[in-house]
Amino acid sequence: MRLSNTVLVQVLSSCLSTGLFLWLCLGLGYDYVPYARIPSTKVVENQEAFHDQQQPIINTTPEHNPNTTPEHIPNTAHYVYILANVSADFSFAFSEVLSIYAASRYWQPDAIYLHTNAPAEALERARSGAAGKWTRLLFQVPRLHIVAVTVPTHAANGKEINLIEHKSDFVRVQALRDYGGAYLDFDVHPLRDIRVLRESGFHAVARRQQGENGEVNSGVFMNKPHSSMIELWSEGMHSAFTGDWSTHSNGALTVVCERLVASPPDVLIMERNAFAPGSWMRDDTIRLLEVHDDETSSLDMMTPDGHLPEFDEERIRWSAPEKTPRRSRSGRTTGPGRICYTPLTTTRATLRFPALVILRLATSSSAAATWPVPYIRWPGPYSNRA
């Protein structure tokens, strides 16, 4: 996302101190690397145990966890990162690392599977820090598993798959079909636990996206292995594939979900605000990132343990909607006498660099929502305020 000069001035005006700003600027030494996401269908067993602050398991086979009952959606998270050029660095941006840390903290998953076609040499460089400091921190995520990937070239109808994004669509569905769990794009930032949905009795959970047609979005969804939703989608997307952007993904998924929703517990379709109060549209992005100088800084309301206070919004939201602060209507707000609307996840926050998190921390909806994770993970630099 490109910020205009006016927005940049607003961002800089929100800086908490000159020292903090300089620290953040010095931390931006690694460029954002474009990526696509492809879940794995090819895995190699590895029995090496993993614990916090140790190296993740490499090329592991996703398995059913005994702590998850067959009646529930597995408590696992799946991310995918495919290299268009396998000789390139396995490199991650700050926002991508933040997403995985948030899933780890809020969901406490039995495993986080990162599916990639990166060769062993690239993984070693990434682990050593040669591919960027955010990538090195990624390798410290508890219960992280690196999984090898096979990249598809053709749909079952014979149509060649050219776009990386389309390859991702096909293989992520195959991975969730085989193993179940929750799939997330890297621009999905978990904000609270989804256990209530995983254990709701539904075999699959999806959500609608922005737009007049209200299609079901394929950027975040969850299901049991071989559920009706994922089986029908896996079959239908091959015949629906034409090379168009989302006919086989969101389009095919919407057809399947709207067919099954009348037969619970096959699928639960969540409304847009439950998972994604924002979107990729300009107005929604502005609502997430705009500065609210007329409201109390979230930092001024922080508790000693680094948490922001939360308040029940339901009574005021329905009885006096005109009193709902702007940040509540666009994602989250906190403070004495205020309300707090926290969706399950937020998307398209475009938090590519930590500067956007901190410089907008006091006054933006996106930063207020995602603040607890970087504070808890890296408390020192953020807590030293002038």
What's the β-strand tally? 10
Principal-axes shape call: globular
Task: Sketch the major β-sheet.
Answer: 8 strands, mixed
Distance between the termini: 30 Å
Number of domains: 2
Q: Please trace the helix and strand order, writing H or E for each element.
A: HHEEHEHHEHEEHEEHHEHHHHEHHHH
The pLDDT mean sits at 71
The class by helix and strand makeup works out as alpha/beta
Rg, Å, rounded: 21 Å
Q: Low-confidence segments, ≥5 residues, pLDDT <50?
A: 1-55, 311-318, 324-342, 347-362, 380-386
Q: Estimate percent helicity.
A: 25-40%
CATH topology call of the largest domain: Spore Coat Polysaccharide Biosynthesis Protein SpsA, Chain A
The largest sheet has its strands arranged as: 1-4-3-2-5-8-7-9
**Overall CATH class of the largest domain:** Alpha Beta
Count of alpha/pi helices: 17
Would you identify the CATH architecture of the largest domain?
Alpha-Beta Complex
> Which percent band covers the strand fraction?
5-15%
Q: Can you put this structure into words, describing what you see?
A:
The chain has 17 helices and 10 strands. It is of the alpha/beta class. The strands form 2 sheets. An 8-stranded mixed sheet has the order 1-4-3-2-5-8-7-9, with helices on both faces. A two-stranded antiparallel ribbon has the order 6-10. The chain has helices at 5-13, 18-26, 94-107, 120-128, 133-138, 164-179, 195-198, 228-240, 247-260, 272-275, 282-289, 314-319, 326-329, 354-359, 365-370, 372-377, 379-383; strands spanning 57-58, 76-81, 111-116, 144-148, 181-184, 188-190, 204-208, 216-223, 268-270, 345-347. The radius of gyration is 21 Å and the shape is globular. The longest helix is centred in the middle third of the chain and has 16 residues, at 164-179. It has 2 domains: 5-30 and 277-383, no CATH class; 57-275, Spore Coat Polysaccharide Biosynthesis Protein SpsA, Chain A, CATH 3.90.550.20.
